[in-house]
Design brief:
Number of strands: 0
Number of helices: 10
Radius of gyration: 20 Å
Helix content: over 70%
Mean pLDDT: 77
Shape: globular
Structural class: mainly alpha
Largest sheet: none
């Protein structure tokens, strides 16, 4: 007996939705228990929240599947909770002997921060690059329509931000040789969520060129991060038993 493709797509979509509803709960609970966000990269969650905003905007503008709209809207709510924990717990970190021992390391890190003139140059280069890209693809934007073009740009911007968001957390784990403060369960669930999210899109309709091009950026953002999530899970195994 043949199974309706819509039923299969909805099944994967609801599994993905269930995972995303639960995904940040382990990390939020761990932060609450420790009364600290130490070990968690602020850049990771900040970029993740930015990616969610692009994701939601693009999904609405391009009239994607309901799950593709509901998920980023829920992500943003959970992002706010985690970022709120950074605000709530960081000022309350106890200044104990262990904290004092870390001060020289923090000071050295601050000294190696990128000078503001370099940051300004990079910002200008980024703006010029965006202008050049818009100029090169102006004909494509006119042919596709402004609404659809903006939706696709939001989608690809979301994918780029998602992919870059994991880098600070991976580098921080590598630098500290520890994953203390991170929830392994969260990264397991997010991996399953991304896999089922991709499957929900790929099984919804026959994979025609038009259909795949519409969802290409969202598939890139979800499937591309799976490898990065597996890297972090490997770091949990590699640095098991270590502490900051």
């Amino acid at each position: 007996m043949m199974v309706d493709a819509t039923v299969v797509s909805e099944f994967f979509g609801y599994v993905s939705l269930a995972c995303w509803v639960f995904v940040l709960v382990p990390q939020i609970r761990l932060n609450y228990q420790r009364k600290s966000c130490e070990g968690v990269s602020l850049a990771f969650y900040t970029l993740w929240a930015l990616g969610d905003l692009f994701n939601l905007a693009g999904a609405i503008l391009d009239n994607l599947l309901l799950t593709a709209i509901v998920l980023p809207a829920y992500y943003i709510l959970t992002d706010i909770v985690v970022l709120g924990q950074f605000y709530a717990y960081c000022p309350r970190c106890p200044i104990d002997e262990e904290h004092m021992e870390r001060q020289p390391l923090i000071a050295r890190t601050d000294k190696k921060s990128m000078p503001w003139p370099i940051k300004a140059v990079l910002a200008v280069v980024a703006v010029v690059f965006c202008i050049v890209v818009l100029g090169l693809y102006s004909e494509w934007i006119v042919q596709m329509g402004v609404r659809r073009a903006v939706a696709q740009l939001c989608g690809y911007s979301s994918a780029a931000v998602y992919l870059s968001a994991y880098v600070p957390q991976i580098l921080q784990n590598y630098r500290l040789k520890s994953t203390e403060g991170l929830s392994a369960l969260m990264f397991i669930v997010v991996t399953v969520a991304n896999i089922t999210y991709c499957l929900s899109i790929l099984t919804a309709q026959p994979p025609t060129h038009e259909y795949l091009s519409k969802y290409a950026s969202w598939l890139l953002g979800a499937s591309g991060t799976i490898l990065l999530e597996l890297i972090i899970l490997y770091q949990f195994y590699l640095y098991r038993g270590n502490s900051n």
